[in-house]
Each structure stands twice: as C-alpha cells, then as structure tokens.
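Exercise: predict the structure of this protein bound to iron/sulfur cluster.
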Amino acid sequence: MARDPRYDILFEPVKIGPVTARNRFFQVPHCNGMGHQHPHGHAAMRGMKAEGGWAVVSTEECEIHPSGDVTPYVEARIWDDHDIPYLSMMTEAVHRHGSLAAVELVHNGPSSSNLYSREVPIGPVHQPTSYYPFQARAMDRQDIRDYRRWHRDAAIRAKKAGFDIVYVYAGHDLSMPMHFLQKRRNQRIDEYGGSLENRIRLFREVIEDAKSAVGDTCGIAVRFAVDEMMGKDGIAADGEAKDIVAMLAELPDLWDVNLSTWKHDSQTSRFSEEGFQEPFTAFVKTLTTKPVVGVGRYTSPDRMVSLIKKGVLDMIGAARPSIADPYLPKKIEEGRLEDIRECIGCNICVSGDYTITPIRCTQNPTMGEEWRKGWHPELISPKASNDRVLIVGGGPAGLEAARALGLRGYDVALAESSTELGGRVNKESRLPGLSAWGRVRDYRLGQIGKMTNVETYLDSRLNAANILEYGFERVVLATGCHWRKDGVGRSHAYPIPGLDKANVFSPDGIMAGRLPGSGTVLVYDDDLFYLAGVLAERLAKAGLKVIYVTTGDTASSWTTNTLELLVINKHLRKLGIRVIPSRDLVGVKDGVAQLEHSYGEEPEFIPVDAIVPVTARLPEEALYQSLIANPDALKDAGIKSVTRIGDCLAPGLIAYAVYSGHRYARELDANDMGEVKFRRPLPLMATS
Ligand code: ADP
Ligand code: SF4
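Solution:
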C-alpha cells in the first residue's frame, strides 16, 4: 500500500552537519543490557531498527575511559582501539539499511562506579558518588585536560568504527558536562565553576573538541536534559536550561532534548500520556536553527506530523516505540498503520538494563533475540507441516501463539471461555492507569482478524472430552492462572492462619468488579510488583479506607526496575492510602490482622473489614493434567502434542506470556522443539 500523503513530511531528509538522515525517525540512545558484553546481539538489534526505517540509530551510553566505568551496568564501551571492531559490527548493521549510526559518548564522572576498573572516580568537586559508598575526587586542571583528551580520542575512534554522528552527552544526572553544569554538583572556584558562563565551559569545549576532531565527516549531536524536575535546585526549562540552549544554540549540529533523570525521561503510561515531554522541550526550537529531536513515547503518526508542523521538533525521537516496533517508520511509509505494534509504556524493557540482562519487551517478543535466536520482528518461517493447532485460552499467550502460527500458515482455532479475547490484559487494563496495556490485545486481534486461517471461538469453555473429540494434531493450553486466596507466597510456605475464616477478596475478584462494600481493606503485598499498588488505588478510588501492608521495604518494591518506585509510593500516599512497609501478615483473628515487623519490633494488631492477599498465583492446569493422564486417548484422537504456554505453564509477567506464545509458534515442527537453544557470544582469548 502507498503511504498516506499527509505523512510525507515524516519522510523528508534532515541534514545533521555533514551527514543527512533519510527521514525524520530517530532512534535515540537507549540502554539494553547487551552493550559491550553481547556485541553481536547488540549489533543485530540496532540493525533491525535501521531495517525498519529509523534513519538514525544510536548506541546507548558508550563509556570513553576506565575512570568512567558504569559496572555492573552493561553499556557500550570505547576505551581503546580494541573496542572498535565490536562497535563496527553495529555501524555496519545500521549502514546496511541506509541509516546513520550515532554513538553516545559518555564519562559519568561521580555517577560512575569504577567497580571494574578500580580507578578513583572524578568529578567537578569532592563529592560522594551517586550510587556507591565512596567518593569522587575533585578534578584539577590536568584532569580536565585529560578528560577532554579522552573524549576527543573516543570521538576519533568512533569515527574509525564507522559512526556518522557523535554525541556529547549532558543528561540524566549522569555525564560530566551535566555535572559541571549543575550548580549543586559544581561549586568550583576556578573558570569551570560559579557563574553559568563558567559552568558551561566544559560542555562547550567538549563540543568544540569533537567538532574539530571529527566534525568534517560526523554530525556532532548534543543530548541535553532541559529539566531535572527538581525546581530551582536543578536545571529547569523555565530556568537555566533556556540560557544554556541559547548560549550553545548553533554550536552542535543537532539538539536531542529530554528530561532528567531516567525516571522522568521514560515515564510509564500509568502516570503519563504520549507527548508528556512536550511542555518542557518545546522552547528549544525557538532558540536554534539546528534540528531538534525529542521523545515522549510517540506512536501516533498524526501526532508526529503535528509536532513537525507546529515547529516543536524536527525529528521524532524514540526509544521505547522503536523497541516495541522496530518497523514503525516502515509501516507508516507503507500505509500499514494498523500493523503498528504500539509501545504500552510498561518499562519491562528498562528492567532488562536494571537487572543487567539483555533487553526484553512486552509487545515485541523478538526484542533482544535478533541474533541469539535469529528472530525477526516481522518475518517467520512458513509452516513445516499441515498440522492443525487448537489453542485453548485467548490471553496474551494464546493470542500471540495464534498470531505467529497464523503468520506461518498453520490452520489455527482459538477457543476462549469468556465472551472477549484478551485474558488478563482485559482485566488489568481496566485498572487505574493501565488502559494502554490493552494494546497487547488490540495489536494481536487486529492481526488475527486479517487471517483467514485463524478462527476464534468465544464463550467456548473446553474440557478434555471436547479436545479429544475435535482431533487437532496440536493442542496448546494457554488457560492462564488465578491468584491464591490463602496467603501462600514468598513469605509463607503454608496458608496464613485465619485467612480462611476472614473476609478475603482475591485480586481476580477485584479485577472482575467484586469489591468489599465498605470499611477498611488491608491489601497484603508479598508479590512486590505493580498489582497490589494498583488494586489499592482501585479500592481507594471506590471510597474504601485502604491499608497497604508489604513485606517489601517500600510499596511495589520491584518497580524500582521499571523506574516507578518513587512515583508509586508518592501516589499511594496522595490517595490517602496508609502504606506499612517491612511487615508480614502472620494471622487474622476476629477481624484483626496481626503484622510482624521485619526488624523484630513488637507485633501490630489492626482491625480490618476485608483482606486482599496479593501473594502468588496457581496455573489453570487441570485441563492439561486430565489430557496427559490418558496418553492412549490422545493417540487415538490423533493428538501429537499437548503444550502449556504462558501463565498456564508458570504465572509470570505479560511479557513472558507473549514470549511463551511466540516461542511455541516459532518452534512448532522443529526437531529440537522446546530445547533451550540460542547462540552465545563467547569472549575472545586475549592475544596480548
Ligand atoms: P496468559 O497470560 O498465559 O495468556 P490469561 O490468564 O491472560 O493467560 O488468559 C487465559 C485465558 O484462558 C483466559 O481468557 C481464560 O478465560 C481462558 N480459559 C481458561 N480455561 C479455559 C478453557 N478451559 N477453555 C477456554 N478458555 C479457557
Ligand atoms: Fe514499550 Fe513496554 Fe516494550 Fe518497553 S517493554 S518498549 S515500555 S511495550
């Protein structure tokens, strides 16, 4: 299909100094947990973005020197010439598809750990490092000269590695130019501290150094956080940021502007809408003639066009939308808007970096698997048999299996016991703040709807007899799971005493709209991710008095990995919810909950009218057990395999369910189906 002419403007080329981007789609730097440790995977993932139409594809932070080592996080690295071949793998993968490769050079100064290099961290003044119990020392003039030399040398190496754009990075409360800009971090009394003219000096010098070193052939981009969201204590869009942009306006070849820190830059859909950065970054274009890139979880092409036309941005920056759909630009170009797999804003991608593991994505199960499994987000091998597949359950696992099997050409029947497809995504996306999660369902329904070889059957609860009778060769059980009501979970191997006699409401019940009528509800969170917090919000908004008790040190403690921890904890308190962290629910008697303190303080007794235990789930596996209990019956029915996927196999994240469904579809009819098989990049033996 041809592109809608109203999107033509998105495909205009943009000049970035000496290089030209073929369109306005710009994959800004983003972490991915692969970096220098998984260079093949990293290169293939970036190459996929270029293939999908992103005109510029950037690395994540790329450390320039051992004194700016961010271990244990795994980012890119360009310490010396040994790194060049690894980075070249990426630039070649990007160039193969006609895109420009950008590198985000970084020295994190006092935000570095140097846990690997064991160098003493350095910074504008003596100060504690951001995340570790030791200090950075103040840089003297020689240190500043050294830092500039490292940055310059790194830029030259980047050019050798084939990069077309070299970033000077001042963002996220992380990099040296940012730390010199920040008043609170820079109280130097020499020409690099004090007035803004002085604090901006290093930033300016490093941009000039990069320009003189490689600016003849490389575009020099600046990444600058215009607001640290801390009022007058930080850089602010209505404060010094304007002066900074004005003072450097025409110096770089491109401005990439955003918010700091990362939690403000990558806000989740629970707390912010598409375009949430616009009010902060919109001023930049009024102060420079150079192209401006900005982000804001943009997935709507109409919104993108309006940003360009209104003069807010010149290029549409994206990290997460490019992760969820590496082919987003191409789909707009080809007039296939309904095929766009929109980011749901859940930040599971971020959790990869935070847990120092390769990136994964809820919407895009192939993310991070491009090299090690050879998975392509849009392509999949044709079917290898004429086996017909029956999928039982239409949640994210069943829907993704149906979509991907359908794409392979298999005949698929999907039976769902309820009257709507979507499973847990339907339930969860009705909770406060989670409506965008419905995109997991919507994308798959849209795709399946176009397939003549995938039939869906609603209101169809299947039992073993039905399945044997239908005689599909392959049976996939995607029947999901349910929340326990007995309190068993991480902290309790056995049911919590008294819960069986208490007024207990399960998370499933609340999601289905069955709420306590009135009074005080105790939400007991031993799951530690998002759900208990969202349920507490749901209950509070229904007018109930909510007490949130968690075995974690904070509410929703695992959300530190999705950048939401602080905002959730503030949010719950704002809603009037009493949060009691570091406590275990050890029993309930006569409407009184007994809490035990993690630090051994006296037990606490709280009168409650209802309890919602959010502890653990059990798979809906009865159907599976009854089928496999009778192998002869399966054989007689012509059933070759019965496979559990998603939450029916093991309750987990929505991302795991999608991945599980996808993996089943990829592997069907492979000789080694179900084997754990992926390529591993083994370290090379050092030669010197
Ligand atoms: P997952 O996350 O693994 O996809 P979900 O809980 O989201 O799991 O979805 C499971 C779906 O399976 C639910 O929509 C549920 O209604 C459906 N289901 C469960 N048992 C049966 C059954 N016996 N027949 C048909 N559908 C079923
Ligand atoms: Fe978007 Fe979630 Fe995928 Fe990240 S993991 S790109 S937030 S859908």
